[in-house]
């Protein structure tokens, strides 16, 4: 049955594939594809967290503006 999801093809070396297979078995994932998708999603979440942490750090160093000043 065709899927409506987009596909991404990856070529990996044997060592990396074997590592993914061991991790799949350890986590009892249904497939390596499902495992890679889960890892990619977690990686994107971490990247997003790092980005917003940088934004927060920049804002933390700015001068504070009162509520009234912002909305006046």
Note the main sheet.
none
Radius of gyration over all CA atoms, rounded: 21 Å
Number of helical regions: 3
- Mean pLDDT, nearest integer? 93
Residue runs with pLDDT of under 50 for 5 or more positions: none
Helix content: 55-70%
Order of helices and strands: HHH
Count of DSSP E strands? 0
> What structural class should be given to the helix and strand makeup?
mainly alpha
Distance between the termini: 59 Å
Shape: elongated
Percent of residues in beta strands: under 5%
Subunit organisation of the chains: single chain
SSE topology sketch:
Layout (H helix, E strand, L loop, with lengths): L13 H14 L4 H29 L6 H5 L1
Describe this structure in words.
This protein is mainly α. It has a domain at 14-61. It has three helices and no strands. The radius of gyration is 21 Å and the shape is elongated.
